């Protein structure tokens, strides 16, 4: 008589929380994987656009000269108007380390006159032809997946939210039941000489753990821009229960429309703002009609934006207007919740962690982030193949 009992299946004694996390991690990852890869690749490209453009266009690099005053942007505005009297100037922009850019027509149209911010010398004239801009194309992919904005934005925003959840559930799956010596080695190191299945698992498991904190920061700061409910929730938690300030305050001119006074008003606006901020760059938005005000942003730091200052002025008198904005006051004077708002972009791209070196760190972390859906899919595929499904 055969008394040998058949082997019983290994019991899965994991908690319900673990099982739910595993289910969410698998299916949410499969659903959003390709989109997350696109978000990561396009984000890396966009983050280094200034350095790439500097390399491709060295003649347009104009470094900040300490102690030397930049020309008033109104002088550059007037020069652009003299050169192209039939064109409407929409902005005067001096990115730090670059030539001043005078934009024509619709904002971000690509029709730009480049001038030296210290001498006013013409460095490059606009072609006034529609040209393909690789970085603009990249940004469209990053923000709305090259689809119509009303369709692509929700897809990108909620894919980022899903990625945030998969990172948290991934930590649950990574966490061992027992911390033995062998488990510690497996959890924190990659076995590079292993077979492809084990190597892929280690790349997903170990690299995912090491990159998780920064990837969570990138996801949260991305959701800040795309999901209004998350924006409000973040302000509520960082302010300890306060309601968020009005996101967009309508700023109006306080006097009747006087187009002939625009240049004089912009001159007054610049002199008022530059007296308050030691700026290395600026962005002046030229009002296009009687309803728009003069908007002026000053950059105290090179390619960091947490401490930029924003001002609005009446287009007819140059009088500074009161604005309820995160950038209306200095970073040092802001409360904690507002500092989080101010830091959001720099945290998103990495410049908050040491400027260019922070973005270099983010480059490698984001590469890992883009690889996680791929290695995760392979983990699932190998398991499915082993089961013979």
Structural description of this entry:
The chain has an eight-stranded antiparallel beta sheet, covered by helices on one side. Helix 1 (16-47) packs across helix 5 and helix 7 packs across helix 8. Strand 7 and strand 8 form a beta hairpin. Helix content is 51%, strand content 9%. It has helices at 16-47, 49-56, 73-83, 134-144, 149-174, 181-188, 196-226, 228-238, 262-274, 336-349, 356-387, and strands at residues 89-94, 100-104, 112-115, 122-124, 281-285, 294-299, 309-313, 320-321. With 389 residues, the protein is an alpha+beta fold.
SSE layout and pairing:
Elements (H helix, E strand, L loop, with lengths): L15 H32 L1 H8 L16 H11 L5 E6 L5 E5 L7 E4 L6 E3 L9 H11 L4 H26 L6 H8 L7 H31 L1 H11 L23 H13 L6 E5 L8 E6 L9 E5 L6 E2 L14 H14 L6 H32 L2
Antiparallel strand pairs: 1-2, 1-5, 2-3, 3-4, 5-6, 6-7, 7-8
Helix pairs in contact: 1-4, 1-5, 1-11, 3-9, 5-7, 7-8, 7-10, 7-11, 8-10
Essential attributes:
389 residues; alpha+beta; eight-stranded antiparallel sheet
């Amino acid at each position: 008589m055969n008394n040998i009992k058949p082997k019983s299946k290994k019991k899965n004694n994991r908690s319900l929380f673990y099982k739910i996390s595993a289910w969410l991690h698998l299916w949410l990852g499969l659903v959003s994987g390709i989109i997350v890869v696109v978000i990561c690749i396009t984000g890396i490209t966009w983050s280094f656009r200034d350095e790439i453009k500097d390399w491709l266009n060295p003649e347009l690099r104009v470094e900040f000269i300490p102690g030397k005053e930049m020309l008033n942007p109104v002088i550059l505005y007037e020069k652009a108007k003299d050169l192209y009297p039939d064109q409407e100037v929409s902005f005067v922009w001096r990115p730090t380390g670059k030539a001043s850019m005078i934009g024509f027509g619709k904002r971000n149209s690509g029709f730009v006159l480049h001038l030296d911010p210290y001498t006013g010398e013409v460095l490059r004239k606009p072609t006034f032809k529609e040209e393909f801009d690789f970085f603009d194309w990249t940004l469209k992919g990053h923000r709305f997946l090259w689809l119509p904005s009303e369709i692509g934005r929700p897809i990108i925003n909620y894919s980022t939210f899903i990625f945030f959840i998969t990172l948290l559930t991934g930590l649950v799956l990574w966490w061992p039941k027992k911390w033995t010596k062998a488990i510690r080695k497996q959890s924190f190191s990659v076995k590079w000489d292993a077979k492809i299945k084990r190597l892929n698992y280690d790349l997903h498991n170990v690299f995912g753990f090491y990159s998780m904190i920064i990837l969570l920061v990138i996801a949260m700061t991305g959701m800040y821009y795309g999901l209004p409910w998350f924006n409000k929730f973040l302000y509520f938690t960082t302010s300890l229960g306060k309601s968020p300030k009005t996101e967009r305050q309508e700023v109006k001119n306080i006097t009747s429309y006087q187009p002939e006074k625009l240049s004089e008003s912009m001159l007054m606006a610049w002199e008022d703002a530059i007296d308050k901020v030691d700026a290395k760059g600026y962005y002046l938005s030229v009002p296009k009609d009687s309803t728009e005000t003069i908007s002026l942003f000053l950059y105290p730091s090179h390619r960091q934006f947490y401490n930029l200052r924003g001002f609005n002025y009446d287009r007819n008198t140059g009088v500074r207007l009161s604005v309820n904005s995160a950038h209306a006051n200095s970073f040092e004077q802001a409360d904690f919740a507002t500092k989080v708002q101010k830091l959001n972009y720099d945290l998103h791209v990495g410049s908050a962690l040491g400027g260019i070196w922070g973005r270099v760190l983010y480059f490698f972390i984001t590469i890992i982030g883009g690889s996680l859906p791929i290695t995760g899919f392979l983990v699932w595929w190998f398991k499915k193949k082993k089961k013979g499904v």
